[in-house]
Design goal:
single chain; mainly alpha; Arc Repressor Mutant, subunit A; 5 helices; 2 strands
C-alpha cells in the first residue's frame, strides 16, 4: 500500500485538530468539523477536499458522526471525525496476518 499523499495528510491532521477544538469549546450540538471547516484548516480547495474526504470515508480513515444545520443551506452539513484504530493494535500475535501467512507458507512448502 502506498503512503498517504500531502492532501490526505493535511485533511486528516485538520480533522484531528478541529475535533479537539470542538471538544474543548463544547459547542452545543457539534460532534465534529464540517467539510468546509476541514478544507479551510488544511488550506485545500473545497473540491479537492470533497474528493479526498470521500476517499477517506471509503478507506475507513474518516467517518460521519453527525449533521449540523448550516444557515442559508437547505441540507444539513455532515460532521466528520477520524476513526479510532485502537482495535488494530489490540490483536495478539496469533491474529496478525504475518503469522497466518507464515503458517500457510509452511504448509504449502511441505
Amino acid at each position: 500500500m502506498r503512503p498517504a499523499g500531502e492532501i490526505r495528510q493535511a485533511i486528516l491532521q485538520a480533522a484531528v485538530d478541529l475535533i479537539e477544538e470542538i471538544r474543548q469549546s463544547s459547542k452545543e450540538g457539534r460532534k465534529g468539523p464540517t467539510l468546509a471547516e476541514i478544507a479551510a484548516r488544511a488550506g485545500v480547495a473545497r473540491r479537492d477536499a470533497r474528493v479526498c474526504v470521500s476517499n477517506c470515508k471509503r478507506a475507513g480513515a474518516l467517518q460521519i458522526v453527525g449533521e449540523f444545520r448550516v444557515p442559508k443551506r437547505n441540507r444539513p452539513a455532515a460532521e466528520y471525525a477520524p476513526v479510532q484504530r485502537s482495535d488494530l493494535f489490540d490483536k495478539g500475535p496469533a491474529d496478525s496476518g504475518a503469522v497466518v501467512l507464515g503458517m500457510f507458507m509452511q504448509s504449502w512448502a511441505r
